[in-house]
Amino acid sequence: MQFSDNKPIYLQIADSISDKILREELAAEDRIPSVREYAAEIGVNPNTLMHTYEYLSKEGIIHSKRGLGYYVSGKAREIILNLGRTQFFEKELPRLLERMLLLEIPTEQVLNAISMYQSLHSSGRL
């Protein structure tokens, strides 16, 4: 796994796990790899991965079954969507809109690009 410098590693791993849930690669009540197993697989310190699992547990995305490991919670997808939408509207969209205004990109051009992207995505060409 490649990590960037602009976000803590434990959050980047949490995002990766969340993306797998959104893509339905992980479903409700699926077991996720143990801390040691997953840390070795992605090449991070087990303490970093434990921090990730603690964060995901606190958010309600995963839960621990004593002696069995960590599992995806039943409401994980809904929680991730709500958190992601909040982050998008509070952080990402304002930056995008500011950039759009600085570059003097007309709203109509952005809406056309969104429409084209949606068409490509729904047809499976993305």
Account of the 3D structure:
The protein is mainly alpha-helical and 126 residues long. It has a domain at 9-76: Winged helix-like DNA-binding domain superfamily/Winged helix DNA-binding domain (Arc Repressor Mutant, subunit A), CATH 1.10.10. It has helices spanning 9-22, 35-42, 46-59, 76-102, 107-122, and strands spanning 31-32, 62-65, 69-72. It has a three-stranded antiparallel beta sheet. Helix 1 (9-22) crosses helix 3 (46-59) and helix 2 packs across helix 3 (46-59). The longest helix has 27 residues, at 76-102. The chain is elongated and about 55 Å long.
* Helix percentage: 55-70%
Computed Rg: 18 Å
Number of helices: 5
Which regions contain 5 or more consecutive residues with pLDDT less than 50? none
Distance between the ends: 22 Å
| Strand adjacency order, main sheet | 1-3-2
Q: Which CATH class of the domain at 9-76?
A: Mainly Alpha
- Number of E strands: 3
